[in-house]
Recover the amino acids of this structure.
């Protein structure tokens, strides 16, 4: 009788652990978040927002603000690298735009600014070269885009739909995406609408939706206005949006823009995010470096 009981217990045990293994295989693969390694991506909005002719700013041109932001990002990345032991270095910094400009010179600069440092290739000379490139090349990139004077818009929505997972998320890294934008999104080949949700945002759309009065928040929530969800799970990505520059004719424009982005990030389960206005680089420097270097739990 005792032997029969043991036999039954053994069979039950085998079934239990077999089921447990099967369940484990069905669980989604989780990307490890190792905060000691940085994977920084910078997404540029090269729409007409950077045009000094269309949107002049006597204090500082908007493209020069972007250049200043990129310099602060690079300084934070370099400080991170220099604070690590050589054997611990496995860090990336890169720059994107979507859609890609038609000028090959611009794309060549972007390619040159995609840099990976690890224990096999790092040296003081290579770090110094990275610092030089990020101080000089972004300004050349913007000047080329402005001289080309062919602004095709920003397809930020499509970037989140089709590219962000492959380009901006890497295992065993802390993944940070920094978006330089005025907050508006528009690309003529990606204009979609589902109910009151869209893949784009313009001042004209905000006016059309009646989000120009003090009750804009109630209207936005009741009408379910916002961006169409472009991704199901960005829980391994931190995002810093810099440069929000609202249409001055609507006193509530900035609040509406930030609400669109906030709700979008929440829907896509972004791990951590901040959405900031278009401040001068000297004022944004601390914001950028705190975001990159002082990780919050």
């Amino acid at each position: 009788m005792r032997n029969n009981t043991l036999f039954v217990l053994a069979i039950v045990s085998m079934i239990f652990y077999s089921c447990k293994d099967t369940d484990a295989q069905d669980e989604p693969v989780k990307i490890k978040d190792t905060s000691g390694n940085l994977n920084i991506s910078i997404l540029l909005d090269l729409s007409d927002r950077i045009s000094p002719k269309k949107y002049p700013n006597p204090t500082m041109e908007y493209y020069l603000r972007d250049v200043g932001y990129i310099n602060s990002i690079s300084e934070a990345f370099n400080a991170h690298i220099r604070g690590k032991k050589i054997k611990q270095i496995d860090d990336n910094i890169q720059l994107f735009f979507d859609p890609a400009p038609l000028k090959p010179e611009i794309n060549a600069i972007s390619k040159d600014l995609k840099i990976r440092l690890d224990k096999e290739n790092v040296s003081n000379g290579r770090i110094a070269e990275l610092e030089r490139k990020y101080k000089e090349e972004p300004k050349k990139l913007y000047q080329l885009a402005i001289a080309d004077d062919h602004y095709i818009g920003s397809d930020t929505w499509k970037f989140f739909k089709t590219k962000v997972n492959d380009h901006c998320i890497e295992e065993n890294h802390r993944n940070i995406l920094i978006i330089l934008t005025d907050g508006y999104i528009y690309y003529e080949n990606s204009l979609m609408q589902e109910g009151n949700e869209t893949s784009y945002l313009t001042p004209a759309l905000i006016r059309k939706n009646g989000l120009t009065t003090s009750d804009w928040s109630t209207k936005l929530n009741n009408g379910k206005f916002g961006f169409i969800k472009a991704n199901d799970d960005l829980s391994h990505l931190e995002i810093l949006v810099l440069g929000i520059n609202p249409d001055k004719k609507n006193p509530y424009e900035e609040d509406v823009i930030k609400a669109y982005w906030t709700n979008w990030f929440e829907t896509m389960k972004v791990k951590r995010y901040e959405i900031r206005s278009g401040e001068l680089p000297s004022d944004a420097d601390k914001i950028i470096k705190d975001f990159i270097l002082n990780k919050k739990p």
Notes: The beta strands are 38-44, 90-97, 115-118, 174-180, 193-194, 197-198, 226-227, 237-244, 272-277. The chain has a mean pLDDT of 89. The CA atoms of residues 51 and 149 lie 8 Å apart. Residues 38-293 form a domain with the Rossmann fold fold (CATH 3.40.50).
